[in-house]
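User: Okay, second chain of the day. Same drill as before: sequence in, structure tokens out.
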Amino acid sequence: MSGKRTILFIEDEPNLAEIVRESLESRGFAVEHHATGAAGLEAYYSQRPDVILLDVMLPDADGFAWARQLRTTDMETPLLFLTAKSLPQDVVTGFESGGNDYLKKPFSMEELVVRIKALLSKSRTLIAENTHTGSPLPIGAQYIFLYHQAVLQHQGQSISLTAREAELLKLFLLNRNQVMDRKSILLHIWGNDDFFTGRSLDVFITRLRKYLRHDPEVKIMNVRGVGYKLVS
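Assistant: Same drill. Structure tokens below.
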């Protein structure tokens, strides 16, 4: 199984778990399945998977609470919720607790695989590596982002960013084409989600949109009732 992308799958419905596990393994993934939150958490620490599939309703845990615990130490490992809950507030709660994506049961294996591949995309890995090493990072067709210098370049012109603008842009790029909930952004960048930091976020979003306005392929979109998504 060496070289395969590893998936930690936490789901207590045995029939569904077996179907999903077999389907993913037939597509070349290495899957470790557990039926409880406690066993899943232990496996996470021992295996360090590439992506986590997490049922919201587990016999010994609430999936949202499990995710919040994970996010206290790990903001990077992609996490996709699988759940029968379908109310808009459930979706919001999923993103607020640290999920990167949310798939409602019943779902097709094709859709699940597409979402997993998006979470495991090379572009996300490249962004993480480039912002760590200081390498230039392209955004769309016209921009270059130099994270450690807090500079955005457009056709030879340099735009100086504040430290928080650079952190916010990095966060958007790490989650490119994925919805990020507003509360998680605030907690990640400012450390709290009170009214004043919320207003600051609005200002920073406006500034980033202004900086990126020259490339029509790059957009920071509002997702009503949830948060934002960088499309590029």
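The chain has a mean pLDDT of 88.

User: Thanks, on to the next one.
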